[in-house]
Design brief:
Elements: H1 2-18, E1 27-35, H2 36-42, E2 51-56, H3 69-76, E3 78-83, H4 93-101, E4 105-107, H5 108-111, H6 140-153, H7 163-184, E5 192-195, H8 201-204, E6 210-214, H9 225-236, E7 240-246, H10 252-261, E8 265-268, H11 278-297
Parallel strand pairs: 1-2, 1-3, 3-4, 5-6, 5-7, 7-8
């Protein structure tokens, strides 16, 4: 889809050039990130006078986000645009595509070697497995690698003089949090969770925690009876230790299921990374607390 958008935009820009239409100059001292985790990765590396904006703030689901014209326009005003790509920011594909053409876009997925062919992301299916998980920011090792790349990917004039040193320090912080979590979850290895939607494998798999089932229904609604039956069967079979809900999603069904079964809830932030990985640390802590509570109650 992004390739098609790029092709259309190329034709449009060529037509505008033929007619003598000027494109607005980018605001060189502005960096725009599509989601909070990208801002958390890039922000510490920027020069003090560079403004950093986030298009989709806390509590917004990037998959369903529909930008206003002003929100989309801010990307064209920037000196650099940070995006995940891979279809994550579907509502912003046209604006991101323009930034790619203008050589202002830094795409996390592309930088890490993932392509559109890797992307098998469809959030309207329920109880399914993904061939590819585009939630790259939930894997702190991928975050660390991307941060290490940013001093070479972002325009030098937007970076602090010691951006390379800052990047190395931030990458170390991300890896330290991940390594601490792996050690903490060693005693919980093999535990299973039910999630609202299949977005957590990049966080859970390194911990040895299994995503047993995703129960969000089409359009974020109620799951189908077959998925409900599968969830209850998995819980009765002892595979599930906790239910993961998300701060950005309605959780009525998941909470009801937890109440019916007595399973603890872990509420996680799916689009947060935080300063030096603070929100990622909170996610690990909340999940660990829920799993330990489940084990203690048995």
């Amino acid at each position: 889809m992004l390739r098609l958008v790029l092709a259309v935009l190329c034709l449009f820009i060529a037509a505008c050039s033929d007619r003598g239409v000027d494109t607005p100059a980018p605001r060189a001292r502005l960096v725009v990130a599509t989601i909070e985790p990208l801002a958390s990765m890039a922000g510490p590396l920027l020069a003090e006078d560079v403004e950093l904006r986030v298009v989709m703030g806390p509590g917004i689901d990037p998959h369903s986000f529909e930008p206003t014209p002003s929100e989309a326009a801010v990307l064209s005003e920037s000196g650099a645009v940070l995006a995940v790509g891979l279809g994550v920011e579907a509502g912003l594909e046209r604006a991101i595509g323009r930034a790619v053409i203008d050589r202002r876009a830094v795409l996390m997925g592309e930088a890490l070697g993932f392509t559109g062919h890797d992307h098998g992301h469809d959030h309207d299916h329920e109880g399914h497995d993904h061939a590819f998980d585009a939630h790259l920011w939930l894997d702190l090792e991928l975050c660390a690698r991307f941060v290490e790349m940013l001093p070479e990917l972002l325009p030098a004039e937007l970076l602090a003089e010691d951006a390379g040193v800052r990047a190395a320090s931030l990458a170390d912080a991300f890896r330290r949090i991940r390594d601490e979590a792996v050690l903490e979850f060693a005693s919980l290895e093999g535990a299973g969770v039910i999630v609202q939607h299949d977005a957590w494998r990049r966080m859970l798999e390194p911990l040895g925690v299994e995503t047993v089932l995703a129960v969000r229904g089409p359009g974020h609604g109620e799951p189908s009876p077959s998925v409900l039956a599968e969830a209850r069967m998995a819980i009765e079979g002892g595979r599930v230790r906790a239910i993961v809900i998300e701060s950005t999603q309605p959780s009525t069904f998941a909470r009801r299921l937890a109440e019916e079964t007595g399973l603890p809830i872990a509420e996680l932030d799916p689009v947060g990374l935080g300063e030096d990985g603070a929100i990622a640390r909170q996610n690990f802590s909340a999940l660990g607390a829920a799993l330990r509570a489940a084990i203690a109650s048995n």
